[in-house]
Design goal:
This protein is mainly α and 296 residues long. It is built from eleven helices and two strands, in the order H-H-H-H-E-E-H-H-H-H-H-H-H. Helix 1 packs across helix 6.
Amino acid sequence: MEFYLQLVISGLVLGSIYALVALGFAIIFKSTSVVNFAQGELMMFGAYFCFSMVVQYKVPWIWAFLITILFSIVLALVVERLILRPMIGEPVISIIMVTIGLSSVLRSIVTAIWGTQIQVYDPPLFPEATVNLIGIPTSQVYLWSFGLSAVLLALFAVFFKYSKAGVAMRATAFSNQVALSMGIPVKNIFALAWCIASVVSAIGGILIGSINGINVQLGHFGLKVFPAVILGGLDSIPGAAIGGLIVGVLENLSDGVLKTTLGLSGIKEVAPYVFLVIILMIKPYGLFGKKEIERI
């Protein structure tokens, strides 16, 4: 039982980070109807930039964290203004292909600057000592990562529900034409969506880097998050958070159970995509996705 509780706890931590990155997917899709396949690379770029601040330039963590957030905002604005804004009005598949190309460019830049070796944050972001959680020895890194992810998800939920910008984003997601008729600057809302997605991805990258270290494979994390987005509903922000937690726990449990009972390894890398297929067969629009009915 202790073994399974450890799997659930680590799964919740992983799932909370999935939820952060999935939030970026959902925000961009709701605002622009585009699936951003460069989400994992934005996450990787932010993690490496913070690594440079902390390890190479010896910037204190609090300032490195804030500078990384600022850098993520600037990066998102540059990408949105120079690459994506000229694509407004073009077929959605063309914009998706642009995000795939952007992911390759960002991965190449990271490889050229930082290489492919695993890097570790030194000094670490969180204490590495273990504490007893319901009788289970748990690293403080896990607890701090889960707590920070939960706080950020709660803050973004409040932002979308009560702030003026959040209401404008929801109106834009409902209908671009209606938002324009109400005087909402839709192009600025698109830019804001990319900024938020870039920031949450960078924070997710830093948290994952604090647990496992960082390398160029971190870019594939975005694709692993995709089943969580589908589970919650691609156009549902609360669904993205819940889907992330569910997939994180299921992934850890399936890997632990199959490894101990059948001796199978590598299940953790495949499990999210197995869940994705099952989810699409049962709930094509996800748990909280909006079902669209076209009348002819």
